[in-house]
Amino acid sequence: xxxxxxxxxxxxxxxxxxxxxxxxxxxxxxxxxxxxxxxxxxxxxxxxxxxxxxxxxxxxxxxxxxxxxxxxxxxxxxxxxxxxxxxxxxxxxxxxxxxxxxxxxxxxxxxxxxxxxxxxxxxxxxxxxxxxxxxxxxxxxxxxxxxxxxxxxxxxxxxxxxxxxxxxxxxxxxxxxxxxxxxxxxxxxxxxxxxxxxxxxxxxxxxxxxxxxxxxxxxxxxxxxxxxxxxxxxxxxxxxxxxxxxxxxxxxxxxxxxxxxxxxxxxxxxxxxxxxxxxxxxxxxxxxxxxxxxxxxxxxxxxxxxxxxxxxxxxxxxxxxxxxxxxxxxxxxxxxxxxxxxxxxxxxxxxxxxxxxxxxxxxxxxxxxxxxxxxxxxxxxxxxxxxxxxxxxxxxxx
Length: 398
Prior knowledge:
The protein has about 400 residues and is α/β, with parallel strands linked by helices. The chain has helices at about 5-15, 25-40, 55-65, 80-90, 105-120, 135-140, 160-165, 190-205, 260-270, 280-290, 290-315, 340-350, 385-395, and strands spanning about 40, 100-105, 125-130, 145-150, 170-180, 205-210, 235-240, 250-255, 320, 330, 355, 355-360, 375-380. Strand 3, helix 6 (about 135-140) and strand 4 (about 145-150) form a beta-alpha-beta unit. The two termini are about 40 Å apart.
């Protein structure tokens, strides 16, 4: 491309810009196109292929029919902000003021983007674990920040205390957590969150916690960062209805933080989307107020899907790292003789009719060797789709 501008920083931060300034498609777009071209089952992108609960869908229809189709209030509809506050106290024991400590955003992605653009100045360091969701790198770069990472390794995919202490410096402005983690499905234990809170406070950093998979856990319950008392003044919790209620296309997310942080993020957010999703806001509010049994059953159903896909991957010869939460399985293809996971991911549709993505697409170039044989597969699909994928994988031809 010949057009200069900040887009180059964003593209480079997301690892999509070649040395010759050629913009590459995201790995998700590339692999989805490959799935279509080969007639493969697409387990590359993390979105469900089933509708969410009837109560939530009907609430959206009712909102549209009743005329809730214009701009909602800037911070979000009161009915949703109140439901978010109630939900946070109900599941995490953390009291939230719906009027001053909640801001509705266009999905978690905008919540993260607005938070980073509000807080990060050129040269500030933003710390994440690695592998990292690609939009993190893009927004950090767009804000002019410096992206620092703590690589995590199998089987636990948890950062060590020593690595965290070494990574936090006087230049650290934001610690961006993804918990539960995409792509590994790891969940940070309380002691790690307490250490991160201590380190952030020691350098005056803000913690931004992306917790969109909070209800999709397969054993231990999710520990929200906001339940750590020391984080009350310097943290932003990011949530979303998309993953929990199978409504990823609605893009209804939120942030929870003390009033001053909410106002700082709102100052940026209002000039991004301004507002969004009027009829979907009361629908997500209805979802957040569903009984506990809904949330437990949702996690149990997803766990069964995880195990179904894991069996197919193991039958194919992959070493599977079972996730504790989320939508994705990380599988190691080294036992199949694979040393280049990116090349293997592009061959897999032809060999088995299944698409995954290489984990190296979510890793900075210098750290890719240690992830070179790992692939990520999404199991948030219909049971019949996963059964077919497992059957195809079991017949993998090398």
